[in-house]
Amino acid sequence: MQALKRDWGTTHLRATDGEGVALVFINSLGTDLRMWDDVVALLPAGWSNLRMDKRGHGLSSTAPRGYGIPELAEDVLAAMDHIGLAQAVIVGCSIGGLIAQHIALMAPDRVIGLVLSNTAPMLGNADSWLSRIEGVRTNGMAAMADGILQRWFGPDMLATLETDLWRALLTRTDTEGYIATCAAIADTDITDRLREITQPALVIGGYHDQATPPDVVEKLAAALPRSDLVMFDRSGHLPAVEQPKVFAHTLMNFVERIIP
Predict the structure, then answer these.
(1) Helices and strands of the chain, counted as H and E runs
(2) DSSP class of residue 192?
(3) Alpha helices in the chain (DSSP H)
(4) SS3 of residue 39 by DSSP
(5) Contact 239/117 with Cβ under 8 angstroms?
């Protein structure tokens, strides 16, 4: 367990050293760094990785409201600086992918490549996020959980007991942290800047994803100058959780191709 003090609070980090490829993993909304556990366990022993909990998620502090996606990207860059990581392949899911896109725009020299899982330059629309914020504020996280899980997972995952564990994690997410992060998403659209992201990118989608459906992910891949698209047939919004072996294999093939 590692911690980094920021001006808004403390970030929870988990980093491993290695002489080979460096990867930075950025979580989705309502999860913590454990969403990558099964993928990280399958990576080559010499590869290093950095994972972290966003503001208001996992063991990280809940920051005052009023931050956006750029500030969340700065948190990732600060964590990279903290462990002495100059460059990495940035892997992000959902809002994690949106944060990764911002890092590529804000600090392109820090990004070797991007793995953008189930994401877009604009996630949903502002009205839908404001509606979710109101629902969480009025009814609490537990009342919203089943609807969110239906958007997260495909039918195979929803039929397992593991879904109960992810429901528990979601419902224990700090309400104010969740709301502030929803507000950051609602205020973000970088569609017009995608052509500026020139690093090689692997774009991943899931056929059962209701949050970022296949057509949304396909548009992201088409708009990026250097991208490959992979669609997972059995997963929804969190393929790193639902199909970790396939995700890890796809990730490793991409990394080995872009890094001689």
Answers:
(1) 11, 8
(2) G
(3) 37-40, 69-82, 95-106, 126-139, 141-152, 155-158, 162-171, 175-186, 214-223, 239-242, 244-258
(4) helix
(5) yes
Q: Mean of the pLDDT values across residues 171-193?
A: 96
* Whether pLDDT at 66 is above 90: no
260: pLDDT strictly greater than 80: no
Confidence of residue 193 (pLDDT cuts 50, 70, 90): very high
Looking up tokens 């896109």 gives 101
Inter-CA distances, 52 with 2, 27, 175, Å: 9, 8, 19
Dist. CA 24–CA 40, nearest whole Å: 11
Beta bridge partners of 230: 204
Q: What is the mean pLDDT of residues 226-235?
A: 97
DSSP letter string, 72-100: HHHHHHHHHHHTT---EEEEEETHHHHHH
Backbone φ, ψ for residue 171 (5° rounding): -70, -20
Do the beta carbons of residue 184 and residue 67 sit within 8 Å? Answer: yes
